[in-house]
Amino acid sequence: QLQASGGGLVQAGGSLRLSCVASGDILNIERMGWYRQAPGKQRELVARIEADDTTMYSDSVKGRFTISADQSKDTVFLQMHSLKPEDTAVYYCKAFIYTTAIGDEYWGQGTLVTVSS
Length: 117
Prior knowledge:
Layout: E1 2-5, E2 8-11, E3 16-22, E4 28-37, E5 44-50, E6 55-57, E7 65-70, E8 75-80, E9 89-98, E10 103-107, E11 111-116
């Protein structure tokens, strides 16, 4: 249902753009977001975007990351600038999708972002 891509190895200060495409019998997507999980740490919310384009960010990425969505293509992006070694993690996309009258949460498979110092 969700396919994430765009991760890779980048030096500190660099940029990366993650993409996540939703597929299947989609009636509506209520929200999409990005989470990350660093080794030995819990998964945390990075950024989220609602269907009305309202966004929210964790304090650790505010001013550096931008979430956006192309609703016509059921795709969410995470543009990451000024990357830091502490941004190293597996990044997962998550979406609340209606395929019937009752929606459900879906997770993508994760894409690894490694920031070298």
